[in-house]
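Section 3.1: Structural characterization of target chains.
Under the original work plan, the team committed to producing a structural model for every single-chain target entering the pipeline before any wet-lab resources were allocated. The record below documents one such target. The sequence was received from the expression subgroup and is listed exactly as submitted; it comprises 112 residues.
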Amino acid sequence: MTFSQAYELYKNTWQGFIDVEEVAYTDSDGDQEAVKARQIEPDQKELELIDGLASLQSDYITFNLWNVSLGGKVPGGGGVITQADGTKWTVQSVKKAQWGAQHRCLCIKQVT
């Protein structure tokens, strides 16, 4: 299987999850896009990416963002993910997943 075949296979896998939500992703330039996201618990390796700065693990979450829903944007550190209930998360680190079809964004919850 080639990379492009794998990408085509995985690019719309969000449709197979019942817990996918639509969130707003705002990049560091202030541009916003509605994207498909799935919230998962961060693993220890992801928390190590922020040099052990996690005071409370519950303040961190990982969002899988599907590339096809990003409108050409690439998520990056400092971007903000806003859930439908208004909860905001600041992106701390990003890595590609599923042959580039998803971006795993480790985020810290914003205090309001």
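The domain at 3-109 is CATH 2.40.10.270 (Thrombin, subunit H).
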